[in-house]
Amino acid sequence: MTRPLTAAQRRLIEAADPGTGRLKGTEAQLAALVKRGLAFRHPRPPHDHFLTPAGHRVREAAPDAPPEQSAPQANASAGTGVFAARAGGEAVPPTEGPARAREVRSAWQGMLELRRMTNPDGSTDRPCGWERTHLVQAAALALEAAGHRPAGSDGEGGYRVRETPQPDAVAVRAPDATALRACADTLEAAGWQAGEYTEPRTRARYVLASPRRV
Q1: What is the spatial distance between Cα 174 and Cα 167, in angstroms, rounded to a whole number?
Q2: Organism's domain of life (predicted)?
């Protein structure tokens, strides 16, 4: 189980700039948030710290929510520390309904802000460096934020995003051709290059997607 946030860490996150997510605190405090995946250090001077999508999610969570509910083990295992986009087929039953919709919406808005702050030209229409190093989570977030339904624990009923041997691409599978094309369209609109292919052995169709660079 991921350790709950301390009161000081929560105050730091809640005091972040509401527009940019810029944080103020000591180097030790900021480094601790970076380690938990809730903040990142801007690569350009003055190297300010900003909330990640997971950090934005914590800030928008209900203030009286128990810390254990803000950082369940299943979500922390996906690498975000707090929020995990659904890649499809998760073994642990995820939350559903309006609460999940708010989480996804907040995470996607945080991702767009991360793009604006870290892409050299401030562009939000193409993936940023974080997404290029977290391909599965990034693609899954784009799909879930657009309203696509992930597959259940049995692997049926929705999209599935998986790693591929290619270091800069993920494979997306869906129940039928219409759903697969819709996933490809969503990823393209979110700044990814997406093309449909056929597996030689099984003849199953899938989408190969990679972050667009320009």
Answers
A1: 22
A2: Bacteria
C-alpha to C-alpha distance for 60 and 80, rounded to whole angstroms: 16
pLDDT beyond 90 at 74: no
Q: How far, in Å, CA of 77 to CA of 74, rounded?
A: 5
Cα–Cα–Cα angle for 37, 130, 207, nearest 5°?
Answer: 120
Q: CA–CA distance from 141 to each of 12, 41, 45, 82, 203 (Å)?
A: 25, 22, 29, 14, 27
* Range with top average pLDDT, 3-12, 55-64, 91-100: 3-12
Residue (of 32, 102, 34, 97) closest to 62 by Cα position: 102
Buried b (16+ CB within 10 A) or exposed e, 25-36: beeebbebbbeb
- What's the confidence (pLDDT) of residue 185? 97
Average pLDDT (146-153) is: 91
Cα gap 34→138, rounded to integer Å: 18
| Cβ neighbours for 48, distance < 8 A, ≥ 6 positions apart | 22, 23, 41, 42
The pTM of the full predicted model, rounded to 2 decimals, is: 0.67
